[in-house]
From TrEMBL:
<dbReference type="InterPro" id="IPR008889">
    <property type="entry name" value="VQ"/>
</dbReference>
<dbReference type="InterPro" id="IPR032675">
    <property type="entry name" value="LRR_dom_sf"/>
</dbReference>
<feature type="domain" description="VQ">
    <location>
        <begin position="53"/>
        <end position="76"/>
    </location>
</feature>
<feature type="domain" description="Disease resistance protein winged helix">
    <location>
        <begin position="129"/>
        <end position="169"/>
    </location>
</feature>
<dbReference type="InterPro" id="IPR056789">
    <property type="entry name" value="LRR_R13L1-DRL21"/>
</dbReference>
<dbReference type="InterPro" id="IPR058922">
    <property type="entry name" value="WHD_DRP"/>
</dbReference>
<dbReference type="Pfam" id="PF25019">
    <property type="entry name" value="LRR_R13L1-DRL21"/>
</dbReference>
<dbReference type="Pfam" id="PF23559">
    <property type="entry name" value="WHD_DRP"/>
</dbReference>
<dbReference type="Pfam" id="PF05678">
    <property type="entry name" value="VQ"/>
</dbReference>
<protein>
    <submittedName>
        <fullName>Uncharacterized protein</fullName>
    </submittedName>
</protein>
<feature type="domain" description="R13L1/DRL21-like LRR repeat region">
    <location>
        <begin position="385"/>
        <end position="510"/>
    </location>
</feature>
Length: 658
């Protein structure tokens, strides 16, 4: 039986997909999120499937009609996943099955563009600048859209993020790869889907563009009136060619390999009066010419992973600059003094800037900032923590370093961390210096650094106080899922972290002042006195607990039967004075237990283990009694590695025993 040609399917696709209702994305000014009015789906009507596919049938017509009836009303987004349940095997093996889903995928191509705003379509057309399967993090994509002027209403980032969701979920133009790869970023893949010509005609994205995988092609097409350029690699000689594009708006380096470009010619920025976005990341550029100030339309500048030492003071003339990226720039010694004049700056991504003594004076003028990866506190006027008072739109990841320079609690309070609702990740860092002259106000300063309860991840490094304020561990922090407390040498009492309802991961590292972990770790006594202790479960969501290098820890006691109901991984390392551990038998979800370098530990409480345990690792514990398993339990356990002071036990599964 003859199969329908692909071109026939393509020609019929516009008639063969009819929505059951009018679907239209509307932009709401109240919450700046696109709303889907109507059914939220596009359906594959029964009559249209039958009209397109009758000649495909390699099974009985009645059987095919039955299949179509079962598919009727299912959305194109789910139809492929659901077909396995309704398609006869004989049909799934046929050419018709393949062609049918070629048609379905074609329908999906048009599902998004027909129903979204022109602004969202412009963002879609911009994605055509990227090569097939290009991976990009969401924040970069949003910032490039903004640089091109595709998003104009506030809040721009939220509107742009909603367009990403639309293009991903409803059009399939981009695909979600992974969320939070350790950097807090969300990564997408730009799919290779041809955009219909009619959408290109209505788009504000100027069509002339050059997508080059061969760097030499820049010179070859220098006469082209190019607007957008994406390159896999940049050569020194390419600057001359790029300078000929008087209308150029975008220059992006997309290659993963570093470029040998070490400098940028002075006249490069003189000729590019319309440049909106410039990416020179992963080059060997160590400085930019003062002519940078002539690129007054520039909104996006990425110098990440370069050898840049300083930026020219003429950067102050870039009054439209929205995004400045300087991640992983090990040679950067300071930001320009004129940084405070970049009042349109929304994203200042500095990565980790340990060599810088402080931020430039007057950063408080940048009240539009939504991203500031790190603020280095200084002692001089204009460099203090009080500069943060009006930066209440800060979000994402934020590090406050050199907090030893905060002399008075009042200054910490004026930073208004509690008003910064968008902060998800907060790092509070004091300088790691054994000879640090502590001013004695650490506790009061920390108390005034209380963030908003929306916080999800908290890191405290090198704090000099002996105790922690009660906000650390207060149950009102219902979104807090991860805490790391590192190298707080003076700390003697752990905060009451058992009260946090959503805490999933906890790391306590190098807290050498702590000798005993007691009831206070579970719950604050004042809160316990005002509540019913019988109903309280400590650490209700904790899945991973790490205790490392607590050199003076001797004992952990006082946990209750219902505590740690979700704990799966528990490790205690390098605690040479630990002699008594808490009762583990009642931790019923525990899968992995590791004891390492606990040289005084002789056994586990009652010599028993939770029935849920699958792996026990005991290393460098010379006094530990390895006969803690009963005779019955030994039948279920296999010793995979063993030495005089170490052993790894793994419980056999039912499959393994058979």
């Amino acid at each position: 039986m003859e199969s329908m040609d692909r071109s026939d399917i393509t020609s019929m696709r516009k008639q063969s997909l009819l929505p059951t209702g009018k679907n239209e994305y509307l932009k709401s000014k109240t919450n700046a999120q696109p709303k889907l009015k109507g059914t939220n789906k596009i359906f594959l009507p029964q009559s249209k499937i039958l009209n397109v596919h009758p000649q495909f049938i390699e099974v009985e017509p009645s059987q095919f009609r039955s299949v179509v009836q079962r598919l009727t009303g299912r959305s194109t987004g789910n139809i492929e996943e659901e077909t396995d349940q309704v398609m006869p095997e004989i049909f799934k093996k046929s050419k018709a099955y393949e062609d049918m889903f070629y048609c379905v995928r074609t329908f999906k191509k048009l599902e998004c563009p027909g129903d979204v705003s022109q602004e969202c379509l412009d963002c879609l057309v911009y994605c055509s600048l990227f090569p097939k399967d290009y991976e990009i993090d969401r924040d970069t994509l949003l910032q490039l859209w903004m640089a091109e002027g595709l998003i104009e209403e506030e809040p721009m980032e939220e509107i742009a993020a909603s367009y990403v969701k639309v293009l991903c979920e409803h059009g399939g133009y981009i695909s979600l790869l992974r969320e939070d790869d350790g950097t807090g970023k969300i990564w997408y893949r730009v799919n290779s889907i041809e955009i219909p010509e009619k959408f290109l005609k209505t788009s504000r994205i100027s069509p002339p563009r050059l997508i080059s995988e061969d760097p030499t092609s820049v010179l070859a097409v220098a006469e082209t009136d190019c607007i957008h350029v994406t390159l896999q690699r940049l050569l020194p000689k390419d600057f001359q060619a790029l300078g000929r594009y008087s209308k150029i708006r975008t220059i992006l380096l997309l290659g993963k390999n570093k470029s040998n470009v070490k400098s940028v010619p002075y006249d490069f920025f003189m000729s590019l009066q319309h440049l909106h976005a410039l990416d020179l990341s992963r080059t060997k550029v160590s400085e930019l010419p003062s002519s940078l100030g002539n690129a007054r339309c520039l909104r996006y500048l990425d110098l990440s992973e370069t050898l840049i030492k300083r930026l020219p003071e003429t950067i102050e003339f870039l009054q439209n600059l929205q995004t400045l990226k300087l991640q992983n720039c090990p040679c950067l010694v300071a930001l320009p003094k004129s940084t405070k004049r970049l009042t349109c700056l929304r994203h200042l991504d500095l990565g980790t800037l340990r060599p810088m003594p402080s931020m430039p004076a007057g950063m408080g003028a940048l009240s539009c900032l939504r991203t500031l990866s790190e603020f280095i506190v200084g002692k001089e006027h204009g460099c203090r923590i009080t500069e943060l008072r009006n930066m209440n739109d800060l979000g994402g990841k934020f590090c406050l370093s050199k907090l030893e320079n905060v002399a008075f609690p009042k200054e910490a309070k004026e930073a208004n961390l509690g008003y910064k609702k968008r902060l998800m990740y907060l790092e509070l860092r004091w300088t790691d210096d054994e000879h640090q002259d502590w001013i004695g106000a650490e506790y009061k300063v920390m108390k005034c650094l209380q963030p908003h309860t929306n916080l999800q991840d908290l890191r405290i490094l090198c704090y000099g106080g002996s105790t922690f304020p009660c906000w650390i561990g207060h149950p009102s922090f219902g979104n807090l899922t991860k805490i790391t407390i590192f190298k707080c040498a003076s700390c003697q009492v752990l905060p009451s972290l058992g009260q946090l309802p959503s805490l999933e991961s906890l790391s306590l590292i190098e807290l050498i002042g702590v000798k005993i972990i007691d009831f206070h770790f579970r719950r604050d006594k004042l809160i316990a006195a005002a509540d019913n202790e019988n109903q309280f479960v400590a650490f209700p969501a904790l899945q991973k607990l790490e205790i490392n290098s607590m050199l003076n820890l001797e004992k952990w006691s006082d946990i209750e039967k219902m505590d740690f109901p979700c704990l799966r991984t528990f490790s205690i390392k390098n605690c040479p004075k630990l002699v008594a551990l808490c009762e583990l038998t009642n931790i019923r979800a525990l899968k992995h237990l590791e004891l390492n370098q606990c040289t005084q530990l002789t056994s586990l409480p009652n010599g028993e283990l939770p029935a849920s345990l699958e792996i026990v690792v005991i290393e460098k514990c010379p006094l530990f009694n390895f006969s803690f398993f009963s005779i019955e339990e030994k039948q279920d356990w296999v010793k995979s590695q063993h030495s005089p002071n170490s052993a790894i036990y793994q419980r056999e599964t039912e499959m393994g025993r058979s």
